[in-house]
Write a structure and sequence with these properties.
The chain is an alpha/beta fold. The chain has two domains: about 60 residues, no CATH class; about 325 residues, Leucine-rich repeat, LRR (right-handed beta-alpha superhelix) (Alpha-Beta Horseshoe). Helices cover about 50% and strands about 5% of the residues. Strands 1-2-3-4-5-6-7-8-9 form a nine-stranded parallel β-sheet. Helix 15 links the parallel strand 8 and strand 9. Helix 11 packs parallel to helix 12 and helix 13 runs parallel beside helix 14. It starts with a helix and ends with a helix. It comes from Diploptera punctata (Pacific beetle cockroach). Its main location: cytoplasm. Keywords: Cytoplasm, Cytoskeleton.
């Protein structure tokens, strides 16, 4: 590295443009800076998806994140070597901020389970299909901010078996132990996986210990009411959790009630809640409305395709009359009809904070839809005016503070000059 730094700029650029892109990691990662070499390495290795803007415009970060991702995705359980893993992680650690794992190689499936049907997989308790231990990766990446995991196998072809998409409690415990030491992580996501209530219960024991996590995403999984209750309990304790995505799970009214209870607690800091494609029904929405009437944090609520009717729409309209923090409400793909349109129209007449209301495919008449959109337009105008006034107030405050500092400096300068004159 010392020799590289001593080279003239033109010679250094020429060297980085001609170096082979398959040099050993031990040599390139510590020595070669971000720039042309890592750009060439990325483009030589991957023909597409080289969107450097998604990596803070750092080609080195892009290369190392994608290399580590592919290493994890293709690592067989039988080839797992802790010493090699720790060495690789130590090299990549300063540069990796996001880890997006799209598949994990499972242990060999017993022949008796290979052709188990999807219905059997759904009805049975999760069986012990183990994967590599992710704890050393999560624990060793000191700058990791986002962790995305999808359990399954891509392009498995004729080796397909439903159990390849299952994972064990041990897998969850290993991930949780990694989270305990992940001091920079903000987003934790397991999606499109057979994540059951028992898995969630284990994960939540570790999520609650990590106060840095601000977003949880368990979309397109198998979470039921028991898992939702466990998540609701964490919401009442976790000091930083602001966004929860549970889209397309198996949550019903009881699970929604648990989350609704969490929203009534002052310790709950949740700002975004996504329950889309969960059949929580009228009862679940009624519980959520009761909590939102007085909640002071939640800003976005997504209830698209949640199997509720006019009964819940009436309650939502009443909630809007009292709630003063909700900015976006999504109720599309629920049949609300004319009664629902009337309820929302009435609720919005005294609500000046809601900015967006998605009522597509709800059966609300054009008359009520037009009236609702007019109210929302007025709310948006008021909101923009308020933002402008707030920005002006902040600017004036900064100017006043600068004047105050300048005045204090002038007084201090005069005081020092007076002292010098005396002496």
């Amino acid at each position: 590295k010392q020799v590289l730094d001593e080279l003239p700029d033109a010679d250094r650029c020429l060297l980085l443009e001609t170096l082979p892109t398959d040099l050993p990691f031990d040599l390139t990662v510590p020595i070669l800076p971000d720039g042309i070499y890592w750009k060439r390495s990325s483009q030589d290795r991957w023909n597409s998806m080289n969107y450097v803007c998604d990596y803070d415009n750092s080609w080195k970060r892009l290369y190392l994140e994608r290399h580590l991702q592919e290493y994890i995705e293709n690592l067989e359980l039988e080839e797992y070597n802790l010493q090699n893993i720790e060495h690789l992680v130590n090299l990549c650690s300063p540069y990796v901020k996001r880890l997006n794992i799209r598949q994990l190689q499972a242990a060999k499936v017993p022949e008796s389970l290979e052709w188990q049907s999807e219905e059997d997989v759904i009805l049975d308790e999760p069986s012990s299909i183990h994967h590599i231990n992710l704890e050393p990766f999560i624990k060793g990446l000191c700058n990791l901010e986002e962790l995305h995991i999808m359990f399954g196998v891509r392009n498995c072809g004729m080796d397909f078996a439903w159990n390849l998409f299952k994972f064990s409690i041990v897998d969850c415990r290993n991930i949780g132990l990694g989270l305990d030491s992940a001091k920079s992580i903000k987003l934790f996501r397991i999606h499109r996986s057979m994540l059951y209530d028992t898995h969630v219960a284990v994960l939540m024991q570790h999520v609650v210990k990590n106060s840095n996590i601000t977003k949880l995403d368990f979309s397109h999984c198998r979470i039921g009411d028991t898992g939702a209750l466990a998540i609701g309990k964490v919401l009442t304790i976790h000091p930083m959790l602001e966004e929860l995505v549970l889209c397309n799970n198996l949550i019903c009214g009881k699970g929604a009630a648990g989350i609704a209870y969490a929203l009534t607690q002052l310790s709950c800091k949740l700002k975004i809640l996504n329950l889309r494609l969960n059949a929580i029904g009228d009862d679940g929405v009624l519980d959520l409305c009761s909590s939102l009437a007085y909640n002071k944090c939640l800003q976005e609520l997504i209830l698209g395709a949640c199997s509720f009717t006019e009964k819940a729409a009436i309650k939502l309209g009443q909630m809007l009359q009292q709630n003063c923090t909700l900015l976006f409400l999504d109720v599309k793909n629920n049949y609300l009809g004319e009664v629902g349109g009337e309820a929302f129209n009435l609720g919005l007449k005294t609500n000046s904070t809601l900015l967006r209301l998605d009522i597509r495919r709800t059966g609300i008449t054009e008359e009520y839809e037009s009236s609702i959109n007019l109210i929302l337009k007025q709310n948006n105008i008021k909101y923009k005016i308020w933002q402008r006034e707030l920005a002006d107030a902040e600017q004036n405050k900064d100017e006043e503070w600068e004047e105050h500092v300048a005045e204090r400096k002038e007084k201090l300068s005069r005081h020092i000059d007076t002292k010098h004159t005396k002496y």
